[in-house]
Design goal:
The complex is a heterotrimer of chains A (284), B (242) and C (267).
Chain A lengths: L8 E2 L4 E3 L4 E2 L3 E4 L2 E4 L3 E6 L2 E6 L11 E10 L2 E5 L6 E4 H5 L6 H4 L5 E9 L5 E4 L6 E2 L4 E4 L5 H5 L4 H10 L2 E4 L4 E5 L2 H16 L6 H13 L9 H6 L10 H5 L10 H8 L1 H8 L6
Parallel strand pairs in A: 3-7, 10-12
Antiparallel strand pairs in A: 1-6, 2-5, 4-5, 6-7, 8-9, 8-11, 9-10, 11-12, 11-13, 14-16, 15-16
Helix pairs in contact in A: 4-6, 5-6
Chain B lengths: L30 E5 L7 E7 L2 E12 L12 E8 L14 H14 L11 E11 L4 H15 L9 E8 L2 E4 L3 H6 L2 E8 L4 E5 L2 E2 L3 H29 L3
Parallel strand pairs in B: 4-5
Antiparallel strand pairs in B: 1-2, 2-3, 3-5, 6-7, 6-8, 8-9, 8-10
Helix pairs in contact in B: 1-2, 2-4
Chain C lengths: L10 H12 L15 E5 L7 E7 L2 E12 L10 E8 L14 H16 L9 E3 L3 E13 L4 H14 L2 E8 L2 E11 L7 E8 L2 E4 L3 H6 L2 E7 L5 E7 L6 H19 L4
Parallel strand pairs in C: 4-6
Antiparallel strand pairs in C: 1-2, 2-3, 3-6, 5-6, 7-8, 9-10, 9-11, 11-12
Helix pairs in contact in C: 2-3
Classes of the chains: A alpha+beta (284), B alpha+beta (242), C alpha+beta (267).
């Protein structure tokens, strides 16, 4: 028996269902009852109940693409702040191979990089890497921070939301799974994108968001709002997606992200392809 | 944000009591809880009960720089309770005093059983409680507010810990002692618990109670906790309200 | 309040904010001489004889004023005493830690105190009850609960509001006894309303009321404390870089207008 509805807001300790149901992310089992461990939205899929958090820290997992800032330079590695309780390190060998070079001439403290999480060990030491298309140092642009769980909402179904923003503002936009977003374009367009992204973060858990984003973009850019396509209705009805047991999903196990669909999860892990069009001109 | 103001009344009393503020023996003071009131903190809450005004804020999980405190397989929960100099009738010198240090320790022990600390090895979850106006029962108010702040910060927990005190005033066992009742009363029994399972995570007592009085007081406090727990939930839900 | 682990601002942010400023804009769309939203409430703490809650942008400070009877300083036996203390609470920012006041906290206390004292906001002589023996001592406690840039202006504005609404019992001596008449409350004797206006220097420009982001990248800061008639009662330069003469004079003239504006928020 289930005691809550899909997309209902629950809090830690709320009893969600009894032994008929399985415990998914954001929940735990106690005395054969499934309980919520977080403040979030209920997601029911078949017999599995999960809770998608409304607020959470980014916990790095292998395969993620993240945006980080160099905070320290050590012998043979850089330390980076990746917007997480756990900082990451980038080995010099990843960049230089066998050559020895001065680390700070390549990346200095304060530089912002687009990286991949190569490995996370049992004590949460995070190894980062730059091998991959589109990875490297950012030049120019602005940075925006959002709650990591809202990244899928920002990206949208098949990238629909983020592409709408990119197209309307003519900006390059790269979204790290750790909740850091890089935007580059005309300075006034950068600010438009920033406003829109902040609004999406604020209202990620509500419906009708896509229409409001479209209207806001039109308003900020001084254009007539286009007639909303029917597609947006479908998008909005899936604020919280079903979180399935699948190989892809199990890699994302710990991070409790809200994802629109399985497809957009695929997209996220293939970010580098997207980024090819939007990537920086110069890469180190 | 929507603010909840409630004059909660358990309404079971068969005893009438002439308490200084005309409350029934089992009646809580006016209670108001708001979540998410600070900008920089990861989670925050503001709570008023009677004349108490308490702020709670949470940062974490975050990197712990004091290596010797670090635990390899779980987060540490560090709590700091403090009273503002202007929170009491006679100005209190700033800085921790022995009472604040004790309460900080107890707060941490009251909240820890509820938090899934194992999810965040080698990190810290910092809880800050600031009493900006005191009127009896600040340690309970602090714990209750801290739970809301922890939930607001997205920290995974088994339950939201809630705290309340009962005691004896004027010879009668009563719920939620005011400052006057605490100062002039015969016993004080603050408790904290996880409401779903009724597990008790903080228990202190000072004064004089027979074992029957103790049981009565304990049950009153447990009942009070459950009522306050409803207000905690409302505060969180209103933060994300429609 | 040890400010630990200095947050390193990404180069990208430094550049984008500075470039915007060089183009005459700020990230939040404000003009260079515009304050963020200001809110000021008084009588927020009943146990404090005077209190205020001030917000500039998201920066928030709770201020309590608690007067007590005490002995005056020996070098000024016929005036009351003002003591200012600031707590930069760890809840106010991720890099604030618990502990005794650090240099930032002490500076904030001393500059706020200086502005009020040199501006002669309180007529301290009127706070003397018995020369050399009994005076009112006003404890001003600033509790910073949320740090989002520009603590100084908020601190002084909030302190003024708290002091202006502080009530004390009339006190007099009858023989050897000190009578505190709570049936006849009086306000603190307030003569002046000095306020502070703070500028940040970024990209060669002076910006009023720096936001958190702007404070993190600014080169220098100048706070100007001013009285109602436009005379200056206190000034404090901060930051590791320099200011030139023209910038300082320009700041003073802008401060005249802006402190008058701030004054409209006072009760």
């Amino acid at each position: 028996m289930i005691f809550v509805e899909d997309k209902e807001i629950v809090i830690p300790g709320d009893i969600l269902a009894d032994e008929e149901y399985n415990s998914g992310r954001g929940t735990f089992k106690e005395n054969n009852k499934v309980c919520s461990s977080l403040v979030g939205l209920v997601a029911i899929r078949d017999k599995k109940i999960s809770v998608i958090p409304l607020q959470s820290k980014y916990i790095p997992k292998r395969g993620d693409v993240v945006i980080g800032e160099v905070t320290d330079i050590r012998f043979s590695m850089w330390n980076l702040d990746i917007n997480s309780p756990y900082s990451g390190f980038l080995p010099a060998s990843d960049v230089f191979g066998k050559e020895k070079r001065e680390l700070n001439r390549t990346f200095d403290v304060g530089d912002v990089l687009f990286l991949r999480v190569v490995d996370v060990d049992e004590v949460k030491k995070v190894k980062l890497g730059l091998k991959g298309r589109g990875l490297g140092k950012f030049r120019g642009g602005i940075l925006i921070n959002i709650t990591p769980t809202k990244v899928p909402r920002l990206i949208g179904k098949k990238g629909s939301m983020i592409n709408m923003i990119k197209d309307e503002t003519c900006c390059e936009v790269i979204v790290g799974q750790n909740g850091v977003v890089w935007v580059k374009g005309d300075p006034s367009m950068e600010r438009v994108a920033e406003k829109v992204i902040n609004m999406i973060e604020d209202q990620a858990h509500t419906s009708g968001l896509t229409d409001r984003v479209r209207d806001m973009l039109a308003k900020l850019l001084g254009k007539e709002p286009e007639k909303p396509e029917i597609v947006s209705e479908i998008e909005d009805s899936e604020i919280v997606s079903e979180i399935e047991e699948s190989e892809i999903v199990s890699e994302i196990e710990e991070s409790e992200t809200v994802s629109e669909t399985k497809e957009s999860e695929l997209e996220e892990s293939e970010e580098p392809d997207d980024n090819e069009e939007s990537k920086e001109d110069e890469m180190d | 944000m929507i603010i909840i103001i409630t004059n909660t009344n358990l309404n079971t009393g068969t005893e009438t009591s002439a308490r200084a503020d005309n409350r029934a023996f089992d009646e809580l003071r006016n209670l108001k809880i708001e979540a998410g009131i600070l900008e920089r903190a990861d989670g925050s809450a503001y709570l008023e009960i009677g004349g108490n005004k308490v702020l709670a804020a949470v940062y974490g999980p975050r990197e712990l720089f004091v290596r010797r405190l670090m635990q390899p397989n779980r987060a540490v929960l560090r709590c700091k309770y403090n009273m503002a100099p202007f929170s009491v009738d006679d100005r209190k010198r700033p800085g921790p005093d022995r009472r604040s240090i004790e309460i900080s320790k107890l707060t941490s022990e009251a909240l820890s059983p509820a938090v899934f600390l194992e999810k965040f090895p080698r990190s810290t979850i910092d809880v800050y409680i600031e009493v900006i106006e005191a009127e009896g029962g600040t340690r309970c108010a602090g714990i209750t507010a801290a739970s809301v702040a922890l939930a607001d910060a997205g920290i995974p927990m088994r339950d939201m810990v809630v705290a309340c005190a009962a005691g004896k005033s004027d010879g009668k066992v009563v719920l939620d002692l005011s400052e006057v009742e605490d100062k002039e009363g015969e016993a004080d029994l603050p408790i904290a618990m996880m409401p779903r399972t009724s597990e008790i995570t903080l228990l202190q007592m000072d004064g004089h109670l027979t074992d029957e009085e103790f049981e009565k007081a304990l049950d009153l406090a447990i009942g009070g906790c459950k009522k306050i727990s409803e207000e905690q939930k409302k505060a969180i839900k209103n933060r994300y309200g429609d | 309040m040890v400010i630990n682990m200095v947050h390193i601002v990404p180069e990208i942010i430094k550049e984008s904010v500075t470039n915007l400023i060089k183009n005459g804009e700020r990230t939040d769309g404000r003009a260079f001489d515009e304050y963020r939203d200001i809110s000021l409430e008084t009588r927020v703490i009943e146990k404090a004889e005077g209190s205020a809650r001030v917000k500039i942008g998201k920066t928030q400070i709770i201020i309590g004023a608690k007067p007590q009877i005490g002995t005056p300083f020996s070098d000024t036996p016929n005036v009351g005493v003002l003591m200012t203390n600031t707590e930069l609470l760890p809840m106010a920012a991720p890099n604030f830690e618990s502990g005794p006041p650090d240099e930032n906290s002490v500076e904030l206390s001393r500059v706020t105190d200086r502005c009020i004292r040199e501006g002669k906001v309180i007529d301290l002589e009127k706070l003397c009850i018995v020369d050399g023996e009994k005076v009112w001592m006003v404890f001003l406690d600033l509790h910073v609960i949320d740090y989002d840039g520009n603590l100084m202006d908020a601190a002084v504005l909030g302190s003024l509001a708290a002091l202006m609404t502080t009530k004390i019992p009339t006190a007099r001596m009858e023989g050897d006894e000190l009578i505190m008449d709570y049936d006849n409350m009086m306000s603190l004797p307030i003569n002046e309303k000095s306020l502070m206006c703070t500028f940040a220097k970024i990209g060669g420009e002076l910006l009023i009321d720096p936001s958190l982001e702007e404070e993190e990248i600014m080169g220098a800061r100048l706070s100007v404390g001013m009285n109602q008639d436009g005379s200056i009662c206190a000034m404090q330069k901060g930051g590791a870089q320099s200011l030139n003469r023209e910038e300082i004079l320009k700041a003073v003239s802008i401060a005249k207008v802006k402190t008058a504006e701030l004054r409209t928020h006072l009760p």
